[in-house]
Design goal:
With 102 residues, the chain is mainly alpha-helical. The relative contact order is 0.16. It starts with 13 loop residues before the first helix and ends with a helix. Helix 4 crosses helix 5.
């Protein structure tokens, strides 16, 4: 557990919930990939080597893959070296964001 995360009774992390709430509170604009829940600095570094810096590019891949959970998970694990938990968190955030704004 990171020093800036608080374990909640349900096993989730308060920081992740706050990050999700902030992510869902407004359009993407020019947000960086690290503003997507589940993606951290190390993921951004890996994505940056592929020319991906902005959250809207990740959303574009999510949409191009027809919001398919398995296809997106496979792509994200390869592109950003995410683990299963990080991948699920990112997918959930993009799914909820797209339901709210698209």
């Amino acid at each position: 557990m990171h020093s800036n995360e608080t374990l909640m009774a349900d096993g989730g992390f308060l920081e992740i919930d706050q990050k999700l709430q902030k992510f869902l509170s407004e359009p993407l604009g020019h947000k960086l990939v690290t503003e997507i829940p589940g993606l951290e600095g190390r993921h951004a570094d890996r994505l940056k080597t592929k020319g991906i810096r902005k959250a809207y590019v990740i959303l574009g891949v999510f949409l191009a893959l027809n919001k398919d959970k398995d296809d997106f998970a496979e792509w994200l694990k390869k592109a950003a070296a995410t683990n299963s938990t990080e991948t699920k968190t990112c997918y959930k955030a993009l799914k909820q964001w797209s339901e709210k704004f698209i």
